[in-house]
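Sequence only, no structure available. Ideas?
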Amino acid sequence: MSIVYNVKAAIVNESKTEIERLAAKITQVAKNSDEDFIRTYPIVTHPKNLAQLSALKDDLEPTRKMNSLGISFISYGYINFIHLTSTFKNFPLDKDDKITFYIEDGETLELTFTAPKTTVGFLNKNIHPIKDADLQLLSSKNMEYWKLFNKKKNLNIVGGFCYNEFNKQYKSDKVGQKMFRLMAENILIIKDKLNAR
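Reply:
I predicted one. Tokens follow.
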């Protein structure tokens, strides 16, 4: 029996003024969900996390299973962005913090935030421009894991597509990887339609 991957993207009107501002955007990541980002979780057993266990205890302890990094994409015409949403106490995605994506075949994609974070409730958010070529890379190869870096604390955490009992988006790392590739691919497809308007 084949697995059905439910990732949807669409052209949406993001205007907050009278001027129409259309965007190619992920609108749904999993069936029966209105979430527009994919959830990823810390890899508790990763050696880099275990080496910093005392510093990361707030983000790794079993009672905090909901801690996650959400990832999504959006494109306004010719400019793409990656949106990141963090619930980690030690990783607020602030200016000068970094994320590195480790892709299969030894490739990496590193992004350093140039703008301050925004906070909505307990969520910290930041965005970073991303090139079409980077979206193409993320759509064609598996992201094996990511590493977040907090510059002020000189602290790293490693995570990716781990099973989490609270996560209803995917049941295995392979399905999570496939959904992430589809997110990047769908943004490129919808972006072409947006630019053809």
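The chain has one domain: 8-195.
Hope that gets you unstuck.
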